[in-house]
Design brief:
Layout (H helix, E strand, L loop, with lengths): L10 H12 L3 H13 L6 E6 L3 H12 L3 E6 L7 H11 L3 E2 L6 H12 L5 E4 L3 H9 L9 E4 L2 H12 L7 E3 L4 H24 L7 E5 L3 H12 L3 E5 L3 H9 L3 E2 L2 H7 L2 E4 L9 H4 L7 E4 L9 H7 L2 E6 L2 E5 L5 E5 L5 H4 L6 H21 L7 E3 L2 H14 L9 H7 L7
Parallel strand pairs: 1-2, 1-4, 2-3, 4-5, 5-6, 6-15, 7-8, 7-10, 8-9, 10-11, 11-14
Antiparallel strand pairs: 12-13, 13-14
Helix pairs in contact: 1-3, 1-4, 2-3, 2-15, 3-15, 5-6, 8-9, 8-15, 15-16
């Protein structure tokens, strides 16, 4: 088996951590038990470009249980957990190509290693696997049934490809499933981003001014958790509806240029470029801590900050200090990459359980339905989303009501009125 991981001697530690995460992933466990019996992915090759974490490991194990040949590479150079990568290779016979801190050339070489296995289904977290395939390996496209995408960033990319007429096969937007974005993005990103910031800085949030750039589901979750830690939360937005929602939720709303003047912490979760830019650095107060929890390291204009700085140094693990000509210091966490994964362990297993359940069921759906699908971005079918929610409730021991026949008839009729 070909693979490229940092050190196989880390595998024992990784195996224990994978087992620990699995205890909090009952939905995926139920799907794995079903897959082991039915083998819906038998004969299918799956190429995955995902964060190599304990939760992802359990997804890979589930896909393999369903009969698939699985190949995994990292979707971010700083998110790989080297012990997990080693355990996947040594104990689960899943070829993995990922090393924490790998350079850009190695990162893309690993993606090409996975593409060399001629996958039938791709799984992306940010879109690099599919975009590389479309740019450099179009001869593989006839072999592809379809793909899945885990992030807002990736879905935006693929919808742009669809609009331009260059998307060559169907992609299921797992990110847009209710059981993904309502829970993973909100509760997962909210908690894990705070976790990454605290691990990196050990700073007190209570009493601080905490700026959240972007009020999508990730921003909502982050604002909620920062407020819960005692911070004064400010939201910056470009969408008037989301800005209004943030204000109605009790947060101050203002342009970034104003927020940057008073911020102790600034965290971007927008999926867009240069959200924190040169003119913002120019007005930040001394000691401002800036981090990103969006997928790519483009939301903070680090190039501009480097050009402005007279010196820079690492003052803690995952904390880089940039000294400006007037003596102010700006601190960037985790090189502007996803702070929740680069400085912490990412989302808790309990929320990734639902996200990866959607991934597994979407792979099965593609195998059964790819001949009927067009090269478009599709939402996760409602029946799969509801199934994941039902399995989660079942695992939590929660029962809910069902509509009576009378209620079903009432909701489907136009004749009933006041």
């Amino acid at each position: 088996m070909e693979y490229h991981v940092k050190d196989l001697s880390l595998a024992d530690k990784g195996k224990l951590r994978i087992e620990w995460a699995e205890k909090d992933m009952p939905v995926l466990r139920q799907i794995r038990e079903k897959f082991e019996k039915e083998k819906p992915l038998k004969g299918i090759t799956i190429g995955a470009c995902l964060h190599v974490t304990t939760e992802t490991a359990n997804l890979m194990i589930t896909l393999k249980a369903g009969g698939a040949d699985v190949y995994l590479t990292a979707s971010n150079p700083l998110s790989t957990q080297d012990d997990v990568a080693a355990a996947l290779v040594k104990y689960f016979d899943i070829p993995t190509f990922a090393i924490h801190g790998e350079d850009t050339d190695t990162y893309y070489q690993h993606i090409k290693e996975v593409l060399d296995r001629k996958p039938n289904i791709t799984m992306d977290d940010g879109g690099d696997l599919i975009s590389t395939l479309h740019k450099e390996r179009q001869e593989l496209i006839p072999n592809i049934y379809g793909g899945t995408e885990e992030t807002t960033t990736g879905v935006i990319r693929f919808k742009a490809m669809e609009k331009d007429g260059v998307l060559k096969f169907p992609v299921i937007a797992v990110n847009d499933a209710y059981t993904k974005h309502l829970f993973d993005n909100r509760y997962g990103t909210g908690q894990s981003t705070i976790d990454g910031i605290l691990r990196a800085t050990n700073r007190l949030l209570a009493g601080s001014v905490f700026v959240v750039a972007g009020y999508g589901w990730c921003g909502r979750g982050l604002a909620m958790r920062a407020e819960g830690m005692g911070a004064e939360v400010i939201v910056t937005e470009v969408d008037p509806l989301k800005a209004l929602e943030a204000r109605m939720d009790g947060y101050r709303v203002m342009p970034m240029i104003e927020a940057a003047k008073i911020a102790d912490f600034i965290v971007t979760v927008t999926g867009n470029i240069n959200v924190v830019d040169k003119h913002h650095f120019e007005v930040m107060k001394d000691g401002c801590i800036v981090a990103n929890s969006g997928h790519f390291d483009v939301e903070i204009n680090l190039k501009a900050l480097r050009e402005m700085a007279v010196s820079q140094r690492d003052v803690r693990e995952n904390v880089r200090e940039y000294r400006l000509p007037d003596g102010r210091n700006i601190y960037i966490l985790a090189e502007g990459r996803l702070v929740n994964l680069a400085a912490a362990e990412g989302h808790p297993a309990a929320v990734m359980d639902m996200s990866f359940a959607n991934q597994a069921l979407s792979a099965e759906y593609l195998v059964k339905n790819y001949k009927k699908l067009q090269p478009k971005v599709y939402k996760v079918p409602d029946e799969l989303d509801f199934e994941v929610a039902k399995l989660k409730l079942n695992a939590m021991g929660i029962e809910i009501d069902e509509l009576t026949p009378e209620q079903v008839e009432y909701l489907s009729s136009w004749e009933h009125g006041t």
